[in-house]
Amino acid sequence: MAVSKTESFHDNDEIKHPKECADLRNKESESISSVLGQDTKATNRVLTQEEMDKLDGEVLVSDFKQIKLEKEAQKNWDLFYKRNSTNFFKDRHWTTREFEELKACREFASQQLVLLEAGCGVGNCIFPLLDDELNIFVYACDFSPRAVEFVKKNPLYSPERCCAFQCDLTKDDLRENVPEGSVDVITLIFVLSAVHPDKMKLVLQNISRVLKPGGIALFRDYGLHDHAMLRFKSGSKLGENFYVRQDGTRSYFFSKDFLAELFEEVGLQPVTNDYVLRETVNKKEGLCVPRVFLQSKFTKPSQSQTL
Questions:
Q1: Which ranges are annotated Basic and acidic residues under compositional bias (predicted)?
Q2: Which end of the chain, N or C, is less surrounded by CB atoms within 10 Å?
Q3: CA distance from start to end of the chain
Q4: Low-confidence residues of the chain, pLDDT below 50?
């Protein structure tokens, strides 16, 4: 295993929810939790027999509850932000390191980069970018009206550099707020996993309409067999690789093939699409947590490529 430099626990982007992830949060003490980062691999991690038996033995949540969860999806995320305010997620200062397109995709240095963050939460991704004084304009949308209000109240929010709005990406046309074909880069960071798999294609069709030909979509989310997937208790499974947390929010765990097929169905072509395997190690607490993320880039073909 290739070992990277020591990073903070939060650089692993675990979305930590109350109760279910409390034990992991408690282990993020002042004793340093180091991250041993593996190189990106083409294959996913191998499960133990015990882990395979656990996944095979899971029973699906009832249809009645699944329908209720879908109807209450926005309410559950709004309640999440009501409980946690802006304090739950760490700012994502790693985005320009992981996605060089945030700095390098412009044709010339003075060109303003137009970015859409689909599922912005309270702005943990966009505000570090704006604070870096990059020459960018950001469209930012979220399912939760409360999250959007937190974005607008941030001291770094400025209508001259940012436009935040509430949006259900599965049904609200982004073109009502974002000009068609105007966006250089779209970020989907721990967002698509919260959408029902049957509606993921609708999200990608929606974002594709505002992406420029030659523009790029940057994706990072939970990978298949991530530790968070294996920690769900009995009664949490909604479907294949799809689970509900105790607070009613949901999470899907992506395979490379499933993700590539989704994007290609809406005409977005893969640039990179790989698992990122990591271990979060806290020696003091004796904790070793295997993490799996999927990090990918997809591009919208230019007009010459489609001819």
A1: 7-30
A2: C
A3: 44
A4: 1-40, 307
177: tokens are 């707020």
Structure confidence by residue, pLDDT tens digits, 53-78: 888 889 999 999 999 999 999 998 98
Architecture of the domain defined by 14-21+46-299: 3-Layer(aba) Sandwich (3.40)
Q: Which residues pair with 142 in a beta bridge?
A: 166
Tell me the domain boundaries of the chain: 14-21+46-299
Q: CA 39 to CA 56: how far, in whole Å? A: 29
pLDDT at 123: 85
Starting from the edge strand earliest in sequence, which strands make up the sheet with 162-166, in order?
34-37, 269-282, 287-299, 211-222, 183-189, 113-118, 136-142, 162-166
Burial class (CB in 10 A: 0-12, 13-18, 19+), 42: exposed
Query: How high is the pLDDT of residue 266?
Result: 97
